[in-house]
Amino acid sequence: MRLLRRLIRLQRNRSNRAARAVSRAQAPARVRFGRNHAHHGRYQYGITLSAKATAKIDRVVLNKFLGFPLFLLTIYLLFLLIFKLGAPMVTFLEVAIEHTGDWITANWQYLPAALIQHPLSADFYSLLVDGILGGVVGVMIFLPNIVLLYLGISILEDSKYLERITLLMDGIMSKIGLPGKSFIPMILGFGCSLPAIMATKILEKRSDRLKTILMIPLISCGGKLPIYTLIISAFFH
Q1: What is the DSSP string of 200-227?
Q2: What percent of the chain has pLDDT over 70?
Q3: How far is C-alpha 82 from the geometric centre of its chain's CA atoms?
Q4: Which domain holds residue 71?
Q5: Closest Cα to residue 105, out of 86, 122, 87?
Q6: Taking a C-beta distance cutoff of 8 angstroms, is the pair 140, 40 a contact?
Q7: Quick check: 163 and 112 in contact, CB under 8 A?
Q8: pLDDT tens, 30-57?
Q9: pLDDT at 174 over 80
Q10: pLDDT digits (tens, 9 = 90+) for 94-122
Q11: Does residue 52 lie in a domain region?
Q12: Are residues 102 and 154 in the same domain?
């Protein structure tokens, strides 16, 4: 029994030494891969620009005359991407879900008589059409805008333009205690508050995200206009 234990221990030690040798042999390759593909703890995709090309881009996008017009143009294109391109998708989802509800209503009478005459039949129909489909409409109408929002933010992040926006807007936004990146979700708040609040993910500090989130509802958007109209008609005749 002792001999068997010694043989097992010896074989285990040999296996451990072999594994460590393989790991040491593979370490230089992993280091080279990390140096080529990692930057600040993230993998980089696409074309890696040289320092000279990056400096040329910085001279344009951070120029005191061209920087702000290019920044406003970028925000305008992001705004169009989210709300203009997303509008047909929202309409399509609304129409599709509405037609689904109409199809259920039209074919409800073809169910077996025992199901139609059941005391809970009307409640189940209301749950299916008014509850589930109605709730899906209320949630799905934001899905295209949210998908396009994350697409636009990903493009800005991967192109490193968000860091340049911070340099451009820090001087202005710091006067209200916010970083330069807060300007993007606040501008998006004029279109819709929900995508604007979700856009605060680009802010690193939790306190900056909370301050920006609390300020976004104070920005007027299209969804608040009926509320303004109701309040005005109630208090001012």
Answers
A1: GGG-SSHHHHHHHHHHGGGS--GGGHHH
A2: 78
A3: 11
A4: 67-224
A5: 122
A6: no
A7: no
A8: 334 334 443 444 444 445 667 777 778 7
A9: yes
A10: 888 888 888 888 887 777 777 777 777 77
A11: no
A12: yes
